[in-house]
Write a structure and sequence with these properties.
By secondary structure, the protein is an alpha+beta fold. The protein has helices spanning 33-61, 77-92; strands at residues 2-8, 15-21, 101-104, 110-116, 119-127, 130-136, 143-147. It is built from 2 helices and 7 strands; from the N terminus they run E-E-H-H-E-E-E-E-E. 16% of the residues are buried.
Length: 148
């Protein structure tokens, strides 16, 4: 059985929903040593993914205008710093997953993407401490909102 847990990252930030599969637990609710080792490996991989996203942002900081050969603007340092701050906030939220991908946009923005099966969440950092969010889920209208 899956339980849905929802968490609000901070006022005006996106709620992140995660699914916790409880079907593999013993009747006592305790995990076996094999399940414990699997969990430790998963936690280690999640830490690696957070570090990889931080590295992505540090690489984005080094971009110069026309980084794509098509005239793309490089994000300015204040925007990159803001994106790093957002990543730190997300990382310290217990139930938030690291973005699937962090990329520079062609207009000098930074985009965080989460893709889980058919669900897509995007945060485009468009100004320091300001993002435009989009959530697309099958069977639901696409939702857009801004945060400051």
């Amino acid at each position: 059985m899956s339980q849905v847990q929802q968490s609000s990252l901070a006022p005006s930030l996106v709620p992140i929903t995660v699914f916790r599969d409880t079907s593999g637990l013993s009747p006592s609710g305790l995990a076996s040593s094999e399940e414990h080792e699997t969990h430790k490996a998963w936690v280690g991989r999640v830490k690696e993914l957070w570090n990889e996203r931080t590295d992505d942002l540090l690489r984005i900081r080094m971009l110069e205008d026309d980084w794509d050969g098509l005239g793309a603007q490089a994000p300015n340092a204040a925007l990159v710093d803001s994106a790093i701050d957002l990543l730190k906030i997300l990382r310290h939220e217990d139930r938030a997953y690291p973005p699937t991908r962090v990329v520079a946009g062609p207009t000098g923005t930074i985009v965080f993407e989460w893709q889980v099966e058919d669900t897509y969440l995007e945060a485009e950092i468009v100004r320091p401490f300001g993002a435009e969010w989009m959530l697309s889920q099958p069977g639901h209208p696409t939702v857009h909102w801004d945060t400051q």
